[in-house]
């Protein structure tokens, strides 16, 4: 249990401190860099658990799942040149408000901006 908890918080920190969305593989590489002995399957399992607990959010892009810290921001910018994915924190995702407003149960949303990132400009 202790092991699970410490793995969870280590992975959570990586996702929370990252400026960009991270795939499970990228989280795994970070862990290796920190000389943490956590397998890729465990990383996947932990990420899935954190998503189900609402600690982080998940988006899929080109069949790869990416993770980010902000559970209320599902908006992201994708560079059409390099594929870099950047989180966009815009405060429009009040799901309760939306549910009331349109009279339907909103369970999620996603907004994608596309263009050229600063690096590629
Ligand atoms: Zn770019």
Q: Compounds present?
A: zinc ion
Report the average pLDDT across residues: 81
- Major sheet attributes: 3 strands, antiparallel
Quote the distance from N terminus to C terminus. 47 Å
Summarize it.
By secondary structure, the protein is an alpha+beta fold. The chain has four helices and six strands; from the N terminus they run αβααββββαβ.
In words, what does this structure look like?
- The structure is a single chain.
- The chain has helices at 2-17, 24-33, 40-52, 95-102, and strands at 22-23, 57-61, 64-68, 75-79, 85-87, 111-115.
- It is α+β, with helices and mostly antiparallel strands.
- It has two domains: 2-68, Winged helix-like DNA-binding domain superfamily/Winged helix DNA-binding domain (Arc Repressor Mutant, subunit A), CATH 1.10.10.10; 75-115, 2-Layer Sandwich (Dna Ligase, domain 1).
- It has a three-stranded antiparallel sheet. A three-stranded mixed sheet has the order 5-4-6, with no helix packed on it.
- Helix 1 (2-17) packs across helix 3 (40-52) and helix 2 packs across helix 3.
- The longest helix is centred in the N-terminal third of the chain and has 16 residues, at 2-17.
- The chain is flat and about 50 Å long.
- The mean pLDDT is 81.
- The site of zinc ion (ZN) has 7 residues, from loops.
